[in-house]
UniProtKB/TrEMBL annotation:
Sequence intervals crossing the membrane: 6-23, 30-50, 62-85
Source species of the chain: Mesobacillus boroniphilus JCM 21738
Keywords: Membrane, Transmembrane, Transmembrane helix
CDD domains (UniProt xref): PLDc_CLS_1
Superkingdom of source: Bacteria
Protein name: Cardiolipin synthetase
One Pfam entry name: PLDc_2
GO terms of molecular function: phosphatidyltransferase activity
Biological process (GO), any one: cardiolipin biosynthetic process
Amino acid sequence: MLKRRLEFLFVFILMACFYVVFFTDYSQAIKVTAILIYAVIIFISMYSLMLENRSAQHTLMWMYVMLLFPVGGYFFYLFSGQLYLKGYLYKSKRTRDRDQWEKQMRKEESRDLSFLIENQQCFAQYAKNATLTPITTASRAKILKNGEETFTEIKKRLREAKKFIHMEYYIFRSDRLGKEIIDILIEKARQGVEVLFIFDAAGSMKIAATDLKDMQEAGIKAAPFSPLKYGFFNQKFNFRNHRKIVIIDGKIGFTGGLNVGVEYLGEDDKIGFWRDTHMLLTGESVYTSLCVPA
């Protein structure tokens, strides 16, 4: 919060210095002072830039931008250069996750895929390389063709949870459907079931603060992904979590295209019937799904 305020204070000071130097009749001494203040702020900004975790090429590029384009270059850096850095850091996290998966995959025995035809084997290898997760052969998937099928099954399985529920969603609304699921989660948490709930801060803006409070008071660990502390002006806004995952006791998993909201049940008159697909997973694939939210 303090860092962000300082950044905008620097922008204001730079604009003031620029105005004093080029658009006023102040004395030479005042203009020299304004130039020195401008130079100090640019120096501090470039020093901070060098400490950031980015490549040498991008560091030099932003230094040149700040030097050659007064005020505008710094302002552009705040809303573009730091956006690149956020993407770079997210990419670094994905690289670390990939390395962890590769270590895990080395421990796994190679699965015999000879029963697949050639095209299927190629696709299986592609899926393994793209997702960096092991191929599972002891898994089952039940296709859920619409919202009614999906959420009827999800609510049923949530009520049967004995040990833990891990849930992660992009959109989670505090409407009729959302409150039904929240009530089940609260009930299970009070029964001693561990409940972890991650929701995307941008996609789930309409989740009520009172619902979050009720969940947390019941012992549910609910937290937003990438909070928007500064609204739409936050560089994190484009880095969202579009996952829709539910894991129950490590035995049952759900994933697919449906978020939590009555529109996915076809109850929004403006949208009408919503066609999307979800899956109920059992077997080894549930384990790999369980590792994703971490």
